[in-house]
Amino acid sequence: MTLDWSVVWQHRDALAAATGTTFLLTVATMVIAVPCGIIVAVLRLYGYAPVRALATGYVELFRNLPLILVVYWAFYVLPILTGTGLSPLATGLAALALNVTAYNAETFRAGINSIRRGQLEAAMALGMSRAQALRRVVLPQALRRITPVLASTWVSLFKDTSLVSVIAVTELAYVAMQVRAQTFRVLEMLTAMAAIYWLLGYPQAKLVDWIQRRYAVTE
Amino acid sequence: MDFDFSVITDHWRFLGYGVLVTLALSVASGLTSLALGFVIALLRLHGPRWLRPLVVLYIDSMRAIPVLVVLVWTFFALPIVAGVTLPPFWAALVGLTVHLAAYAAEIVRAGIESVRPGQTRAALALGLSRPSVLRRIVLPQALVRMLPAFGSLLSVTIKDTAIASVIAVPELMRQSETVAGQSFQPIEVYTFAMLVYFVLLFPVTRGVDRIYRRLAHLGRS
Amino acid sequence: MTLDPQRTKAAGAAIVRYRDVVKRFGALQVLNGVTLSVHAGEVVCLIGPSGSGKSTLLRCTNGLEMLDGGAIEFEGTLLPRDERGLRAMRARMGMVFQSFELFPHLTAEGNVAEGPRSVLGMSTAAARARAAALLAKVGLADKLASYPSALSGGQQQRVAIARALAMEPDVMLFDEPTSALDPETIGEVLSVMKTLADEGMTMVVVTHEMSFARRVADWVAVFDAGRIIEQGPPRQIFDAPEVERTRDFLSHLGWSG
After folding, report:
1. A186 and B76 in contact by Cβ < 8 A?
2. Domain count within chain A
């Protein structure tokens, strides 16, 4: 069994670009999923009954589906729904965003709910509107509890970007497996792929630990 | 845009087989990762000192590496390194177990550490040995506290079995891909798959929630 | 050490003897040379301000904390430092905690039977019979199958007392047994403790319940900053304290005799 690790170095440009795409997907998804998650959470907590039901339905649906299935489904359904063909990257982004928005909505909802009702009441008793009270009193406190969970979601999302490889998005997993297919250097490329994810993911996981310690709520 | 769901009924046996494999893989990897997770957590808490950093390294590594990568490596790369080729189902089982056990270990550790130290003191004061304290007093309470987290881990396990489609395990996702590809009716097939997964997953978290609520007082010291 | 003529039960064997006990937590000196004896059948109450080391002394008695200096003797033998030896001694001492520490996953009966089963190796049936008898003794015969979450604080503490008694200890250690209770339920716990005392159980009680100490104790030791500043019969301590600090402490508590 002869191993040729140089194949990793030879394709470093492609791998680097692919890593960039992975990061891009992660950031873009969060940029969409955080505000959308807040909106859905607020709709779920304070909307009219049919709106609440819809929001809850959305959240429960996407929390109970495998992401890889959502990716495939988006690939086939979105072109029909939107009438245009979306690039694999856009499709992947859409699937990820739909998925993470649901999780974020749940995170925000639980975070907001964990703030004692009395806080909201006290703020409104001062004369604030509900929106003001939420924005100035509840949300800032809830953020303490929400931040560690969001950080954890980020790390999960980073790993989940690997799933859009199945629809040929040129992120890290896809490119690494392409190189494997082209060069037949199976062990080298797959190990390199794991190692790159490890190098990127390990510090992120440790950062999440730090955030969780720092924002630990003792009540 | 019309849908023809007869494609589902036409292939019900093929798809049904996929559901069975999904269930089998979920239950099997759920159990093995739970068992392995317990062992790892106990090793971390009560095992030899030198083992602890290794355990932490393993757990943090599984937090960093995607399931897809673990499964693909287990199926394609492990044979080259270890000389043993695992059939897809078993490769998936091994990969999922190794990945999920890290999360299970963290749940177990958190559960055990959340039991009040006063409980250990009270048990010691009665004269119980330390292993007895762990076995009879701490673990039972810790297990109750771990339930909600284990519920969501089970949910994650079922979802992760769908990723095993990438290494040709004939579970539901894979079977759906095949039918969709052959029949050119991906929307109907994947919608059906979504329905099945939802029906599988939704009761799991609800069920665990309900069980936990009834048992929570057993863990509240 | 000369026998104090006022110490009525000092003729009995010394069950627990503390000699110059020293205990530190980091830089904090919690016990600063405590010397005290507890004789068979005596009720010794430890009183004093919070943080004066009373609870720590109790936890050193059954080895939950290790001494930094001095010695503790139990029934004539020095307290061992190894886990095995300590375990054997703990089985002969009963401890009741301020926070009850009932095992939430066991019923009242299960809690009381746990010691006899796991430590004394009794059969389940025998352990359960003992549990039933003890729970009846503390007035909770109808709560055998109840879980701690369904019991009031006072009931939980009584179960905790029964749990400690189930081991048939030679001494009962009470660490502020009523401090976490609602005023209404304090009485039921104190009356169980008085019954025990009347039956001749050797007891060391850390408490803030001065009237209980006055009525039930045979000997009272006043703690302050890790030392015993005064010890004597309750009549002396409560009615005619000899040390200024004791007077300060008691008046601070609103004790007017």
Report:
1. yes
2. 1
Q: What is the pLDDT of residues B6-52, one digit of tens each?
A: 888 888 899 999 999 999 999 999 999 999 999 999 999 988 999 99
pLDDT tens digits, one per residue of C4-37: 666 777 767 889 999 999 999 988 999 999 999 9
What pTM was estimated for this model as a whole? 0.79
Q: Residue B192 is part of which domain span? A: 28-219
- Say what the pLDDT of residue C1 is: 45
- Report how far residue A68's alpha carbon sits from residue C45's, in angstroms, rounded to the nearest whole number: 68
Write down the pLDDT at residue C145.
96
Query: What is the SS3 assignment for A94?
Result: helix
Pairwise CB contact (< 8 Å): C90 & B126: yes
List, in sequence order, every residue forming a beta bridge with C37; answer none if it has no partner: C17
Q: Mean pLDDT across the stretch C114-124?
A: 89
Residues in B closer than 8 angstroms to A173, CB to CB, are 66, 68-69
Instruction: Give the pLDDT band (50/70/90) at residue A219.
Output: very low
**Cβ proximity of C220 and C231 under 8 Å:** yes
Amino acid symbol at C12? G
In a domain, A138, yes or no: yes
Find the CATH number of the domain harbouring A127: 1.10.3720.10
Give domain status of residue B22, yes or no: no
List phi, psi (to 5°) of C172. -110, 130
Instruction: Give C209→chain B minimum CA distance, Å.
Output: 23
Q: Tell me if B23 is assigned to some domain.
A: no
| Average confidence (pLDDT) over B99-113 | 94
Q: Are strands C171-175 and C93-96 parallel, antiparallel or unpaired?
A: parallel
CA within 13 Å, CB half, C127:
19
CB-CB under 8 Å, B124 with C103: no
B156 with B177: CB under 8 angstroms? no
Distance CA(A192)–CA(A189), nearest Å, equals: 5
- A24, B168, C164, C230 from C42: Cα distances, Å: 76, 77, 18, 18
How many domains does chain B contain in total? 1
On whether the CB atoms of residues B215 and B145 are closer than 8 A, the answer is no
User: For residue B64, is it within any domain?
Assistant: yes
- Return the pLDDT at B1: 54
CATH of the domain at B179: 1.10.3720.10
Closest among C186, C182, C13 to C174, alpha carbons compared: C186
pLDDT tens track for A37-64? 999 999 998 889 999 999 999 999 999 9
Over residues C105-127, the mean pLDDT reads: 91
Contact C91 B126 (CB under 8 A): yes
Asked, for residue A128, whether it belongs to a domain, the answer is yes
Q: What angle do CA C193, C163, C159 make, to 5 degrees?
A: 65
**Six-digit token string for C28:** 């904090």
Round to whole Å and give the CA distance between C161 and C192: 9
